[in-house]
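Deliverable D4.2, example record:
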Amino acid sequence: MPETLYKSSSIIPSEQTDYVEGYLFENAPSKWVLEVNYITGDGQLHGFFASKEEMQQQQSALSQEIGNLVKFTFTNTLIHDQDWKESYKMHFTPWRYRSFHLIPLWLKDTYIASSEELALFLDPGMAFGTGNHETTRMCLEFLIERNKSQKNAGSLLDLGCGSGILSLAASLLGYTNVVGVDNDEDAVRISKENAHINNLAHKVNFNTYDVFDLKQSIGTFDCIVANIQADILIKCASKILQHTHSGSSIVLSGILTKEVNQVLHAFQEATTGNHPEYSLKEMGEWTSVQFFNC
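Output generated by the structure prediction step:
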């Protein structure tokens, strides 16, 4: 019997795409994908679902959350003989920063990187973290830059590891005692699979863990990276800082530029002693923060 899926699409006007992108990021992983024409700014939202009921539930959730900001005009299509779980592949392309290459697993036999450069092969599945999103790119750039400026990268804790991209990249860059945690069991499973693909399973430890439940017993780290939404970063500032020492750095992402001052204030207020120094990166509507010597 042929496999079927339900596809739902809506055109998103340019002035409304930011609202949709913010919703998708804060609710990742999602079965919705937003394609934006960066010349016109207009977007097309596509969702792939296993049943009509699931499609209708997801449409209702979107409308309830941001329907007052976005005018959705859904068109629905029944598609045969396709695997909706493979649809993400068309949105994941190779990416490079300095000597670091991020490559989709299905291009492993055709993509060529110099033997002197680092290559991470990734199949994100339905987990958040392809490296194509601005928030993930900025985290990677901060890690790569920090690695170049220090002889010993040290240990790293990845909060909300998603596909494992940041943990695995850190291991390739020379970080030791790398720990990645996520509250989504599928994300942890996918992270472990990607670790095996890159022969890093013995170097990176992935666990199902909720950032709200962080305990001091997990230890302190030389670097902490957290690519999660701003409201969680603000609520968990003190918990995150408990896992630093005097020379640690923290990389925070998933922050809309309009929210960055609130995040900075939360972490500065939660810091004992002098406020740590920080630097910012901006891409599109997103900002990432790196704190030094927390």
